[in-house]
Amino acid sequence: MADRIAVMDHGVLQQVGTPNEVYDRPANLFVARFIGAPGMNLLPGTLAGTGGGLAVDLGPWGVSPPLPARPAKGAAQVMYGFRPEEVALASEGPGLRAGVGFVERIGARTIVHLEAAGGAVKAVIDNDVPVSVGENVTFHIPPGAVRLFDAASGAALAGA
Q1: What pTM was computed for the model?
Q2: Which of 2, 36, 71, 159 has its CA 20 to 30 A from that of 28?
Q3: What is the pLDDT averaged over residues 135-144?
Q4: Greater confidence, 107 or 79?
Q5: Which range marks the domain in which residue 69 is found?
């Protein structure tokens, strides 16, 4: 195992750091998609003010919980990123909404493919969580696990 890794795209250095740094805080959309199996989920959204602070309007998915920190840059159009293992499923209550399109049982864990208006994200959950194709679910991502990226440049937004 390496103490530090470098991620390159077509000969261009994208990020250097420890494996945990690169996984937890990808520098851009390329690194976010490349590192991890499955890679980071990325949903297009718009920053929006709410009564509880700043959130992300994710269109058919819903509105995110308030963000823990305001992004340092002023981008209004963002990509809302989160790792599949950060997703928690619920049958009801507040949160993001999606339909279950496909369920992959792969040993000790299950990958659930969630769909809304033509988009899809993946959730990695324990095998004992009951979920069925066609079911509508609510899902939650802890605000501290969310990573925001500028939709135009792909760069990570500091503070988010």
Answers
A1: 0.89
A2: 2
A3: 90
A4: 79
A5: 36-150
